[in-house]
Amino acid sequence: MADTLRIVHCFRSPVGGIFRHVRDLTEAQVAAGHAVGIVCDSTTGGDFEEHLFEQMKGTMALGIHRTPMQRHVGPGDLASAWRTFGIIKELRPDVLHGHGAKGGAYARLFGSLLRVSRSRVARLYSPHGGSLHYDETTATGKLFFALERFMARFTDYLLFVSDYERQTYRRKVGEPPIPNNLVYNGLSAAEFEPVRTGPNAADALYIGMMRDLKGPDIFIDALVLAGARLGRPVKAVMVGDGDDLPRYHAQVKRLGLEGHMRFLPPMPARKAFALAELVVVPSRAEAMPYIVLETLAAGKSMIATGVGGIPEIFGAGSPALIRPDPRELADKMSAALADPNAYGGLMPDTADLKARFGADVMAAAIETAYFAALRRQPPKGR
Predict the structure, then answer these.
(1) What are phi and psi of 149, to 5 degrees?
(2) What is the spatial distance between Cα 234 and Cα 257, in angstroms, rounded to a whole number?
(3) Which of 46, 286, 287, 311 supports an S-S bond with 316, CB 3.0-4.6 Å?
(4) Alpha-carbon distance 186 to 348, whole Å?
């Protein structure tokens, strides 16, 4: 077996944590001498993501290929799938790594089609939350989890980004009948350098996708309540983009917060950290969010909801964790802003974070999974 691989990462939306995860992986894989490519949606992402793609282009031996991919299943899926399969077939991957529900479906189906034509390709899937967020008691949830059980037969290796995600898969889908492993998201050494809060900083920062799953509405409601507790307006910044952004603008206006809130487009997280004293992650559901790791690595104080894999970062009993509820967030926010030094002392130890969540650790574990998956495949042409 060759030491260098042709690796293709397939995912739908080039925004948020999945895109960050893929960027980190491709950087490490290129440095290790592998030929790497990306196939993803062309209809999502903005100027910020375009800039990131431009930075990556020169290093990607198999290129960056963008084609329309629908978020939900529909008639357009057939044409989209056919285009995507054509791209992947031309790239002749040894490893096809799907991320998220759509990327995972494409990677496993198309990898299987390539195997029929006697190509040797390993099919890996990282859920990143994805369809695992559905309620298993609903018709939609039952359908998705039945599909996941079916797709397991076309999967060579499952990679989970948190123990929460792995346990959720076991509960909703079933015990995986294939090799699987827990590999935490990882940060580079440079990201563990502290970020200083800038002059005229706001009190609180939300940074992330503008959709209800991530809790921007909870953040906005909590600002009003926290201001009442503190006896002064709480100044805030919201950084990000998404389909629900106009609703959050309307919510701010309705609550009379326009003079105390700034909305800014997507930007590098470490640049955003300088804009406020306190970072808030009010998500209703998560797998293993990079923004929590990045915030703590940068030495910033934060409040986060205890959902998904977040307690695995903080520790389950951390006083920095809350439920996704505006009143709980307001209580914690007012306490943190009233005594920033005391609250900062509640954050996890940076040295421990670095040992558990390093990018080098993540990349090495995933490369091991690739070779393990390939050892299960027959040689090409047989």
Answers:
(1) -60, -40
(2) 9
(3) 311
(4) 16
